[in-house]
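Repro:
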Amino acid sequence: MTRRDFAKGATTMGLAALAGCASDEGGDDSSAQPSEGDYRIIDPHVHVWKHDPKYPWPESLDNPPDDDALPEPLLALMEQNGVARTIVVHVIYYLWDCRYAADVCKRYADKFSGVCRVNPESASAADDLTKWVEQDGFQGVQLSPATSERGDWIKNAELMDPIWKRTSELKVPMLILTGTSRLPDVAHWIERYPGIKISIDHMASCPIDAPQELRKLTDLARFPEVYVKISHTWRFSKQEYPFRDTWDQVKKLYDAFGPQRLMWGTDWPAVENFCGYAKALSLVRDEMDFLNEDDKRWILGGTAERLWPYPAA
């Protein structure tokens, strides 16, 4: 996800949220709840940020987002669509300063859990991770190696071993945001630290017309603690909603990992520039007719609870 993507999504986020994801976004009350059953829906991937001197942008950020992505409109969307809880992934805008996400998660602890980021090229990364988890309550960490040479730190044992070891010791999940070309590098660390629950975010940005690249992702199914977010179909598709040209890719991931290791996700607020929050949910809950009700229980909530359990209501 680029900064431009985030800003683009944020531009329309405010209007969509104020409109309550109106009916042209699939957000009317008649379709707000799961089609049947009593399972909890959990959105495992959103972002929040705010223009506020208390949470300054880093000096290196030359193009901050125009709008805020505040928790309150997100909470309204969650309520309108029957989403019980969500995972706030610290946004790249702030680089390694995770304080805003931490404060949001503390303020709305009954609704949000958080995932932090640490600088993978810093000697203090492991200790920073401990601080974010033990002092600030984060329940996971995200690494995002670029597919270019800028992401070659993922191959550096001196940098990676302390982070992966500490993640294992803290018993928190690790999110991996990268492209398919980096998955063989990631597989090396999964083999070395097999106890960590790993979430491959947004299907590793695999194009829908690159089956050879998708195999790099499905090959990770051999690791029992690897999970995949089947989000971003709306970004990869060359069609309108419900993005049927992406379904074959989702089916292949379903065949490889099974529903108990797949998760949906909105990537709010970026989704508002494509199909909107409500349709991102409806896409999996109502449109993908190859999924049965038990599949949906896992993909829409049960799988996320394996990574981020929380008490029964």
